[in-house]
Amino acid sequence: MRTPIYIVLLVLAGHAFGAPSLEQMLGFLKQFGRDISYPANIEAAKSINYTGFSEGRHIVGRVDVTGTFIGRELNTEYIFGLFSGLATGASTSTPLVGIPLNQTIIDLVIENNLMIVTTRRDFNFTVAVVPTVWQVKFLFNDEGIVTQYDAIVYRASALFANIWPRLRKHLIKELGLPHHTSQTMAIKIRAARDICSQHEEYCLGPNKQFESKEACMRFVLHKIPLGEIWQAGQNTTLCRYIHTPMLPLRPAVHCPHVGPTGGDMCFDHSYETLLENPFPEPFAALPNNLTLAGLAGQL
Ligand SMILES: *[C@@H]1O[C@H](CO)[C@@H](O)[C@H](O)[C@H]1NC(C)=O
Ligand SMILES: *[C@@H]1O[C@H](CO)[C@@H](O)[C@H](O)[C@H]1NC(C)=O
Ligand SMILES: *[C@@H]1O[C@H](CO)[C@@H](O)[C@H](O)[C@H]1NC(C)=O
Ligand SMILES: *[C@@H]1O[C@H](CO)[C@@H](O)[C@H](O)[C@H]1NC(C)=O
Ligand SMILES: *[C@@H]1O[C@H](CO)[C@@H](O)[C@H](O)[C@H]1NC(C)=O
């Protein structure tokens, strides 16, 4: 019988682990893994301020395909609210980016206050349940609370090239479209209807971004591209779609994201800007109290 990995780690770690403790970091990993899965993400989203993330603005998260999120509320919304909203939100329809289900941990590195985890997580795209592979770096404070995370979904372009053609047929039926409708158009129409109906419902008064539902449909369908998955944080329909589940939560914050201005989210970031490092601290864990800065001369 194999000894569970965390017991080996606990024994090996001994007193070398100060604050945060290994137990705290593994506890977070287990809870987070559950909370992100549907339907547990519904409760996590309702918490508004996820307690595994550091308070106020002391949490910076980045998801390579979408963007950088600063603050506990925003990170709770994008990690939990987005998918719970797509699954159970005001206008439930076939989700274009899938719904996260169960995961298996593939690789795990824990050193000092740094954890790097690779997981294989199934996503439900309605027409198929498909695996996705994620690598996330987490940095913890002394209390075992996450202050930074950096998430990458492997081969995201291949994932969507695989799944969107399969969604096309399903959407043509769901939306009652002519059978020759292109994949891009079918997906765009699904997105546009969801964006514009929710904009109509939740973006009222000063939060209103479009004159009318028709103006919204015109813009989202015809003025901007659908976008590839890497453009989920650019001036695209896909970006506005991803921000739509958050409209009921905080309209004043999120309505601009779906409008023509894109707020501080859906606008064309240059390639150079996409590469900028948003993190206050490096994700580093070196032996003998070495720091990256201290090593600079030797590298
Ligand atoms: C979440 O935290 C923010 C402060 O960062 C606070 O303004 C807000 O009221 C909190 N929301 C809830 C529901 O606790
Ligand atoms: C999720 O659970 C199903 C059913 O138990 C299993 O077949 C599948 O391999 C699991 N997927 C992952 C990524 O762990
Ligand atoms: C995937 O989603 C579809 C549509 O909501 C649902 O009918 C199906 O049961 C889900 N499958 C899994 C494994 O959750
Ligand atoms: C997005 O593109 C549309 C069409 O060119 C334009 O009207 C709109 O102002 C753009 N928004 C941003 C944030 O660049
Ligand atoms: C690392 O720093 C801590 C705290 O300053 C100190 O107690 C410890 O002895 C240092 N360890 C090494 C290997 O230098």
Automatic annotation (TrEMBL):
Q: Per the record's keyword annotation, is Signal included, yes or no?
A: yes
Q: Which UniProt keywords apply?
A: Signal
Signal peptide interval: 1-18
Name of the protein: Secreted protein
Name the species this protein comes from. Mycena albidolilacea
Tell me the classification of the organism that encodes this protein. Eukaryota, Fungi, Dikarya, Basidiomycota, Agaricomycotina
